[in-house]
Amino acid sequence: EPKYLKPILRPYDYIGSTRYVDFDTTRSVYPTDPTKCHISHVVADTESWEQKMAQALEEMDEVVCYVKNHNLGFTIPYTLNGEDKNYIPDFLVRVQDRAEEPLNLIIEVTGEKKKDKAAKVSTARNLWVPAINNHGGFGCWAFLEISDPWDAKNTIRAALRGGKKEVRSHGL
Question: Which of 52, 81, 117, 169 gets the most CB atoms within 10 Å of its CB?
Fold first, then answer.
């Protein structure tokens, strides 16, 4: 009998929501389109990357909704050099790619390569996504790393076109 990865859910509040998100920030922000994101602003970690990514997502008809994963509590646990850590992906995006159910994309906007990036990406793509998809109770998920937010629309569309079967079973 084959073995499947299954997620370990928090015993309480395992279903996250953006409904009660409320925080102050001193960082740069990008105002969002309320038809695509009901959190009023994207909090930027850089001078332009998150802003450009948000703009691209808002311009895509395929995007049902998105949120910058800032102060949402959405983390993916991973291990680096024997130490437990939590990875906070950049964006959570729901796309309608002509399948019956929407696809939930975890998008990481990758700039400089840091030593922990490979562990984060590998864990998200090869462990977290298959585990949550095997659970079956949270829709279909995939992970996508984007290295050029100015070309994000093409990258997302190419990934959806090129890997539809793989996306729906294992992630991008």
Answer: 52
Q: Which residues pair with residue 141 across a beta bridge? A: 104
Structure token pair of residue 91: 């964006």
From start to end of the chain, where are the E strands?
A: 29-31, 41-43, 63-68, 76-80, 83-87, 91-95, 103-109, 140-146
Tokens for 98, please give them: 């002509």
pTM: 0.86
Cα–Cα nearest to 67, from 27, 107, 99: 107
Tokens describing residue 167:
């996306």
89 near 121, Cβ under 8 Å? no
By CB atoms closer than 10 A (0-12, 13-18, 19+), residue 124 is buried
Specify the long-range contacts of residues 117-123, CB closer than 8 Å, at least 24 apart.
Answer: 119/78, 119/79, 119/80, 120/76, 120/78, 120/87, 121/145, 123/76, 123/77, 123/78, 123/79, 123/87
Question: Residue 161 above 50 pLDDT?
Answer: yes
- How far is the first Cα of the chain from the last one, in angstroms, to the nearest whole number? 26
List the alpha helices (DSSP H) in the chain: 49-59, 117-123, 129-135, 152-162, 164-169
- 3-class state of residue 158 by DSSP: helix
pLDDT digits (tens, 9 = 90+) for 137-155: 899 999 999 999 999 999 9
